[in-house]
Amino acid sequence: xxxxxxxxxxxxxxxxxxxxxxxxxxxxxxxxxxxxxxxxxxxxxxxxxxxxxxxxxxxxxxxxxxxxxxxxxxxxxxxxxxxx
Length: 84
Fold this sequence. Notes:
Blueprint: H1 7-34, H2 40-66
């Protein structure tokens, strides 16, 4: 048998992973606009990368939902906010 994991710790880790995936998906989606000037091939590659990141984010959202945590309640802090 494996080591028992505290459910709240497992939730926290999954939420943290979801937040990273959420930020990554947003960043990769933003790259599509940035590479638009480089041509259709660059846009196609950026779109494929963004789709993979979105799929990964949605996978974590589904896992959170199965644990009873609504992914809509998990909000990323604004990028400009400074936390002390």
